[in-house]
Design goal:
CATH superfamily: Rhomboid-like
CATH topology: Rhomboid-like fold
Strand order of the largest sheet: 1-2-3
Mean pLDDT: 89
CATH class: Mainly Alpha
Strand content: under 5%
Distance between the termini: 30 Å
Number of helices: 9
Helix content: 55-70%
Length: about 220
């Protein structure tokens, strides 16, 4: 995906530091995989591996190189533009809020899954849920994408696959609908689709609040 008319000549500070931290955490995960996964990924609160700080640290963990690349590319592409408008402090606040919102919705869906387990499958289901970590910046990145679509809805984006051009607002709508559909139907296992929806939902609420206050385009640095 590339963006017409908005070349990023220099990556702003917060986006740059987020890229660096994510890459460092990925390298550490490669060297100390078991320790990093069990310590910094997000586990269900009843799991013996759960720690409260994982609500934040899971945003800097990634499963593999492609997972890292696509998240960081989207963060750089869309986040750089937003940070230039909002400033570093406001952008970082938004990024953290959407990441935490993504985690909260994901955990709520996990709670519903636990509550719906029948007696026959309860033990196996609980063990699977307790042992499954959630990791990745995707929730916050989807929040960034949502913000970009709301702030610059008519910016035309060129998709690599499929090779079409469309406005940013339609990209956001399509992604939002797909993530909700995949989350409800469970057609793509192993992906926390409701975390993506959560990032977009909390991002929408925060952007609308700033619009209401008249501070959406105010640089708070």
């Amino acid at each position: 995906m590339s963006m017409f008319g908005n070349p990023v000549s220099q990556t702003p500070a917060v986006v740059k530091n987020l890229l660096i931290i994510n890459c460092i955490m990925f390298l550490a995960s490669y060297l100390f995989e078991n320790f990093m996964i069990t310590t910094f990924s997000l586990f269900y609160p009843a799991s013996p591996w759960f720690k409260f700080f994982q609500l934040l640290t899971h945003m800097f963990m990634h499963a593999d190189l492609m997972h890292l690349f696509f998240n960081m590319y989207a963060l750089w592409l869309f986040g750089s533009m937003i940070e230039r408008v909002w400033g570093g402090k406001k952008f970082l606040f938004y990024y953290i809020v959407t990441g935490l919102g993504a985690a909260c919705l994901h955990l709520f869906i996990m709670y519903l899954n636990v509550s719906s387990l029948n007696v026959a499958d309860y033990h196996e289901g609980i063990v699977r849920i307790y042992r499954t970590p959630t990791l990745g910046a995707s929730g916050a990145v989807f929040g960034v994408l949502l913000a970009f679509g709301m702030m610059f809805p008519n910016t035309v984006l060129q998709l690599i696959f499929p090779p079409v051009r469309l406005k940013a607002i339609w990209l956001v709508v399509i992604y939002g609908v797909l993530e909700l559909f995949f989350g409800i139907t469970g057609t793509t296992g192993g992906v926390a689709h409701f975390a993506h929806v959560g990032g977009m939902l909390f991002g929408f609420i925060l952007v609308k609040y700033w619009q209401y206050k008249g501070t959406l385009f105010r640089n708070d640095d």
